[in-house]
Amino acid sequence: MSEGLLLIISGPSGSGKGTVVDALRPLSNFALSISVTTRDMRDGEEDGIHYFFRTKDQFEEMRDNGELLEHASYNGNFYGTPKFYVEQKIKEGKAVILEIDVQGALQVKELYPNSLLLFLVPPNRCELERRLVARGTEDADSLNYRLQRAEQEFKLLDKYDYFVINDEIDNAVIRIKTITEAEMLRPGKNKKSIELFWEEFQCLDRLTAN
Fold first, then answer.
1. Residue 47 forms beta bridges with which residues?
2. 45: Cβ–Cβ under 8 A, 6 or more apart, which residues?
3. Which of 15, 52, 135, 187 could form a disulfide linkage to 120, CB 3.0–4.6 angstroms apart?
4. pLDDT of the residue at 26
5. Neighbours of 128 (CB within 10 A)
6. Which pTM does this prediction carry?
7. Cβ distance 68 to 62 under 8 Å?
8. Burial level of 53, CB count in 10 A (0-12/13-18/19+)?
9. Residue 210 pLDDT greater than 60, yes or no
10. Nearest CA to 176 among 51, 3, 33, 5?
11. What are phi and psi of 202, to 5 degrees?
12. Which CATH class is domain 1-29+94-210?
């Protein structure tokens, strides 16, 4: 079994990140990163399934001890990506999906250089605007803000390892699966298999010599 990897997916609002991640989640070789949060548990949620629920003091201790890949505050609560869960799933050979914005992705890349950065984009700007309008949640000011932010995010595209065009969900999922499977075939992620192959090769060489 090859070693897994941390797959960071970013993209502007309207790129379809959430929908693509939901489609990848059930696949056997993928695992969705579970965040640590200080917010209260809601009805139907379970610790270790939806979030790792921690107190503010516990969260700050994890942050100060370097146990988080990244962290942020939102609406008075803290959220972060725990190293222990990501590393556990990578050892299991999983591609651990972390869906975060561009700035957060670049921060994680500094801490975890072997992570794979993937930027999800719509086919063109007109489609991006159409998707945002179709939500029915954006007024003119909000729409302009999101389009301007998308333009700024696109400028950082060259910091990423891959970009995937999300024209159709099924096509985008196939592209991401192909990229991930290829990355997992790198020799550096298959050291044990290579060592085993080399041992068998040497054994065969000795048998032939005899």
1. 51
2. 51
3. 15
4. 92
5. 21
6. 0.81
7. yes
8. middle
9. no
10. 5
11. -65, -40
12. alpha beta
Per-residue pLDDT tens over the stretch 47-66 = 998 999 999 999 999 999 99
Find the length of the chain: 210
* 116 touches 5 (CB < 8 A): yes
Instruction: List, in order, residues 6 or more apart from 73 with CB less than 8 Å away.
Output: 79
Query: What are the structure tokens assigned to 207, written together?
Result: 């048998």
Lookup: tokens for 62: 């994890």
Instruction: For the chain, give percent helix, strand, coil, nearest 5.
Output: 50, 20, 30
Q: Which CATH superfamily is domain 33-92 in?
A: Guanylate Kinase phosphate binding domain (3.30.63.10)
pLDDT (0 to 100) of residue 104? 85
> What's the burial of 26, exposed, middle or buried (CB within 10 Å: 0-12/13-18/19+)?
exposed
Pairing mode of beta strands 116-121, 5-10: parallel
Q: Is the pLDDT of residue 129 over 60?
A: yes
Tokens found for residue 176:
């991401």
What is the chain's mean pLDDT, rounded? 88
